[in-house]
Specification:
By secondary structure, the protein is α+β, with helices and mostly antiparallel strands. The chain is built from eight helices and four strands, in the order ααβαβαβαβααα. It has two domains: about 30-205, NADH Oxidase; about 205-253, no CATH class. It is about 45% helix and about 10% strand. The relative contact order is 0.17. The mean pLDDT is about 95.
Length: about 250
């Protein structure tokens, strides 16, 4: 009978390694305007090497990354976002949409493509039943979480290299999909779900407000003090959202 190995305490208490990671995590800050810079090709490869190692449901890795270096392509993609920004204004959504012109001149621009056909790789029945629809809803969440994990790894790698980053999710609208996919030769079966911009910031980046650890953590059972009612969420959207989206955390009152 083989004896169970007793782990070395220091192996699972590598605080030095943890702090090195947290230095990168805390340094990952959003910026929407970048200084001119030629991103070396090897930096793109380093960033996507990190993305490649992300976990995914069924190890399906349902992602693909398109590196855009052509200035005209960048301008065209950026204009699609500017047009979306103006469309939101006409619709009177009340959403504090950022200025998307920075996409046009971002030194690094990577388009993230997802293959939703891989939902079939997750637990589903594929018989069209009501139960199957519930399983497929969860399968879509698995796929989105998988791609998000890979994208976050790419962002952290870019931050580790010293770049400011910008995670853009406004690409989900069908009109932008139909505009951008032909530009990049993306097959109709696939979906563009994110765009990642990065580079040296035109102005210093600043840390945005984050919830405290106590607000996001419970032990054994959900702490009811951290539950927000619908009314509280509506009030947060009305009075707080714009402040925490774009202000330095020291200026959030």
């Amino acid at each position: 009978m083989t004896a169970t190995a007793i782990p070395e305490p220091n192996v699972y208490n590598n605080v030095v390694r943890y702090e090195a990671l947290m230095e990168v995590v805390r340094a990952r800050m959003t910026n929407r305007a970048f200084a001119p810079w030629d991103v070396p090709h090897e930096h793109f490869e380093l960033i996507l090497e990190a993305a490649r190692h992300a976990p995914s449901g069924a190890n399906s890795q349902p992602w693909h990354y398109i590196i855009v270096t052509d200035p005209e392509l960048k301008r065209t993609i950026g204009q699609c976002f500017v047009d979306e920004q103006q469309a939101r204004a006409r619709l009177r959504m009340g959403f504090p949409t950022p200025n998307y012109n920075g996409v046009k001149t971002a030194p690094g621009l990577i388009v993230i493509v997802a293959d939703f056909r891989f939902v079939k790789a997750f637990p589903v029945l594929n018989d069209g039943s009501p139960l199957d629809r519930l399983y497929k809803q969860n399968a879509e969440r698995i796929l989105l979480q998988s791609v998000a994990a890979s994208t976050m790894s790419a962002h952290l790698a870019a931050a580790a290299l010293g770049y400011a980053v910008w995670w853009i999710t406004a690409i989900g609208q069908e009109q932008i999909q139909q505009q951008v996919k032909p530009l990049l030769g993306v097959p109709e079966e696939l979906a563009i779900i994110d765009v990642m911009c990065f580079g040296p910031p035109a102005k210093p980046s600043y840390k945005r407000w984050k919830k405290s650890l106590a607000e996001i953590m419970s032990w054994n059972r959900f702490d009811p003090r951290n539950f927000m009612t619908d009314e509280e969420i509506d009030r947060w959207i009305k009075t707080t959202r714009a402040k925490v989206m774009y202000r330095d955390e020291s200026r959030v009152d």
